[in-house]
Design brief:
By secondary structure, the chain is α+β, with helices and mostly antiparallel strands. The chain has helices spanning 8-20, 36-51, 96-111, 138-143, 162-168, 201-204, 243-259, 298-319, 338-350, 365-369, 396-413; strands at residues 55-58, 64-68, 77-83, 120-125, 188-196, 209-215, 217-226, 230-231, 267-269, 273-276, 282-283, 286-295, 322-330, 334-335, 357-360, 374-380. The protein has two domains: 8-215 and 333-413, Aminopeptidase, CATH 3.40.630; 217-330, Alpha-Beta Plaits (2-Layer Sandwich). The strands form three sheets. Strands 1, 2, 3, 4, 5, 6, 14, 15 and 16 form a nine-stranded mixed β-sheet that branches. Strands 7, 9, 10, 12 and 13 form a five-stranded antiparallel β-sheet that branches. The chain has a two-stranded antiparallel sheet with strand order 8-11. It binds zinc ion. Zinc ion is lined by residues 83, 94-95, 128, 195.
């Protein structure tokens, strides 16, 4: 195999330059989908794509696509992707490093004149973050045929519909023709994505990168416990039906259940709780709290949810409460392909990089691509696990390692 050099300097400069577009006053980045800043970023990234030897187009979901044709263009392509939109006042690495690594990999392939059978596509997906139309993973969802007509009618803060935003963005995007941009099973051989971890695991355990085993699917619930309101001074403890104490018992059980198996990545969170009527001298009549349970194994997640529901039932019975459990959302966890995990492991071995297998707690474009192809993901360590903030930071050396690992794997599949 020819020796190929991934240029650390070019990668670093690209990250820096892209970070200048939509730069906020506290040095964060704000590039909402299909905005003026997004257009500027699109133009710059398109230029880098061309320099790398990619042909640049847009599909009708607003996805920016660079393609380098293989020797056999009828074969399914190998795709590398992520996003260049950001949350409000976010960081300059989230999404960006995946797209720029993809471009850098193709640049290296082009420079070394590597002959490849399969075409390579580098994609910056439209509105991954959902910070403009409150509806994330739009481009990747569209590409796999999961966008509904009403998704195009979502409006931003200025009442502009996504349809209008797409229609006026240019680059040949026409939301009336989204059907033409849907990819089918068999169109894409593999999908690779590199992303910052957005969590503290890699840094805490001293790894530059990690190989993702899967993306945990969140399930959201609203729990309501109803007891009896009363005077905080006059109702004796033994006669109370206090739903807040009941909720406390349930919440403790959520923690216990999610920590039960130290090897499982299960996480459970109660992020919001409210007591009604909410007076410091009133025993609450009712309590509402949210529940967010995530796991990579659907069965394990469901079992934990079942046990939480049992606990709610038991607590309600012993305390004389009524209860309601409302399911708001449940996303199926997505597994990365064993084939690609092994391939990434092999690349780590070859480059003598020690990389753990980790779970993604956050959603990524790869999640939807998994509907039509095998996915493989690499996580890059980020400082203090911070993301979606101007404080977000990833070291160029770690990004370089991730890019090289990805390169080594991709080269074997094209
Ligand atoms: Zn992201």
């Amino acid at each position: 195999m020819k020796t190929v050099t991934i240029s650390k300097e070019r990668l670093r400069i690209h990250i820096e330059q892209l970070g200048e577009i939509g730069k906020t006053k506290d040095k964060g980045v704000q590039r909402l989908a299909l905005s003026k800043e997004d257009r500027e970023a699109t133009l710059l990234v398109s230029e880098w794509m061309r320099e790398a030897g990619l042909i640049v187009t847009h599909d009708h979901f607003g996805n920016l696509i660079g393609r380098k044709e293989g020797e056999n263009p009828s074969l399914p392509s190998v795709m590398i992707g992520s996003h260049i939109d950001s949350v409000r006042n976010g960081g300059k690495f989230d999404g960006v490093i995946g797209v720029l690594a993809g471009i850098e990999i193709v640049h290296a392939i082009s420079e070394a004149n590597v002959v490849h059978e399969h075409s390579i596509e580098v994609v910056a997906f439209c509105e991954e973050e959902g910070s403009r139309f409150n509806d994330g993973l739009f481009g990747s969802r569209g590409m796999v045929g999961k966008v509904k007509p009403e998704d195009l009618q979502k409006v931003d803060d200025n009442n502009v519909t996504r349809y209008e935003a797409l229609k006026t963005f240019g680059f040949g995007i026409d939301p009336d023709f989204t059907q033409q941009s849907i990819r089918e099973i068999g169109d894409i051989k593999h999908y690779f994505e590199m992303h910052i971890e957005q969590g503290p695991y890699l840094e805490k355990n001293n790894y530059p990168i990690g190989i993702v085993s899967g993306i945990a699917g969140p399930s959201w619930f609203k729990v309501r416990l109803v007891g009896e309101a009363g005077h905080a001074g006059t109702v004796p403890m033994s006669l109370r039906k206090d739903p807040l104490v009941g909720a406390a018992e349930v919440i403790k059980e959520v923690e216990t259940l999610c920590m039960n198996d130290p090897n499982a990545p299960t996480v459970g969170t109660v992020g919001r709780i409210a007591a009604f009527p909410g007076g410091s001298n009133i025993i609450p009549e009712s309590v509402e709290f949210t529940l967010d349970i995530r796991d990579i194994e659907l069965e394990r997640r469901n079992k934990i949810i079942e046990k939480i529901e049992e606990k709610i039932k038991l607590v309600s019975k012993t305390r004389g409460l009524e209860y309601q459990v409302e399911k708001n959302m449940a996303t199926v966890p997505v597994k990365c392909s064993e084939n690609l995990i092994n391939s990434l492991k092999q690349s780590c071995k070859e480059l003598e990089i020690d990389a753990p297998i980790i779970v993604s707690g956050a959603g990524h474009d790869a999640m939807f691509l998994a509907e039509i192809t095998e996915i493989g993901m690499v996580f890059v360590r980020c400082r203090n696990g911070i993301s979606h903030s101007p404080k977000e930071w990833a070291e160029i050396d770690d990004i370089l390692i991730g890019t090289k690992i990805l390169y080594e794997s991709i080269i074997k599949h094209i």
